Every structure is written in structure tokens, then in C-alpha cells.
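ingest -> validate -> predict -> emit
validate: passed (alphabet ok, no gaps, 145 aa)
predict: started
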Amino acid sequence: MLEVKTIPAEDTYDILRPHQSIEQCKFEQDHAEGAFHLGAFYEGTLISIASFSPQNQPLLTESPSYRLRGMATLEEYRDQKAGSTLIKYAEQNLADRGVQAVWCNARHHVKGYYAKLGWEELGEPFDIPGIGTHIAMYKTLGTSR
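emit:
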């Protein structure tokens, strides 16, 4: 059984980018007011993380909105549905706070993952040098579109 907990930003770094230095893992918004980080624990082990911060997306009319800034699950635990559990937990938490939408810049090859969670594409694909092709994706919270 998975347990979802709020965790410090620093606890996300090893899972999010295991082959990079701590400095390369830090996001500017990690400690912004309203930012939060979630961890999914399986039998006491942190197996998946997700980081969220308040940030409006210029192509969205819904406001306020939050950005999913980083998400990752340890490879050997990807069959536990930890990532989708974290997303659903965050969506409910944000909706309860009156947030209108959540969005992310998804790697193009995993856009289907977000689509299965009810997220929609926004705008055109774009390239992030050194990382690859991405697409903005979003989900309206609290109301159906």
C-alpha cells in the first residue's frame, strides 16, 4: 500500500535526477510560497516524488494555477501506480484550495501518461536543449470542461 506524504524539496533530488549534482536538481521555485513536494512511500521507502509550485501558464485562462515542476518514480517501482497516485492526491489538494488548473511541460514521449489522467495538450511541442521535445499539458480542476 502506498502512503503519500509532504516531503522537503531536498528529498526529491535523488529520485528526480539521480545522475546529476544536487545543484543541478534544484528548481528556482522549490521554496516559493505555496510550493509543495509530495512523496509516495512503499513499505517505508520513498519511491516516487512530485513537486508543485504556484505559477500561471500564459496559454491558460484559468487562474490561479499550479505547475507540476518535476515528477519521477524509481524504475523498479513503476508498476505500483505511485506517480498517478501523487497526481490525483495533488489535484484534490489543489482543487480544495481553489486552484483552477494544474499544468506541466511533459516530455513528448510520455504525453499519453498524462492524457490517461485527464490532462490535455496545450500549444505546440517545443524543444528543451539537452533534454528533448516537450508539450505543455494541463488539467482544469474543480469543474469539467
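Strands lie at 2-6, 36-42, 45-54, 65-73, 101-107, 120-128, 132-140.
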